[in-house]
Amino acid sequence: MARRKKIYEGKAKTLFEGPEPGTIVQYFKDDATAFNAEKRDVIEGKGVLNNMLSEYFMNGLTQIGVPNHFIRRLNMREQLVRACEIIPLEIIVRNFAAGSMSKRLGIEEGTALPRPIVEYCYKDDALGDPLVSEEHIAAFGWASQQDMDDILSLALRVNDFLSGVMFGVGIKLVDFKIEIGRVYEGDYQRLIVADEISPDSCRLWDMETGQKLDKDVFRRDLGSLTDAYSEVARRLGVMPKGATPMKPTLIN
Ligand code: UDP
Question: What is the DSSP letter of 127?
Answer without folding.
Answer: G
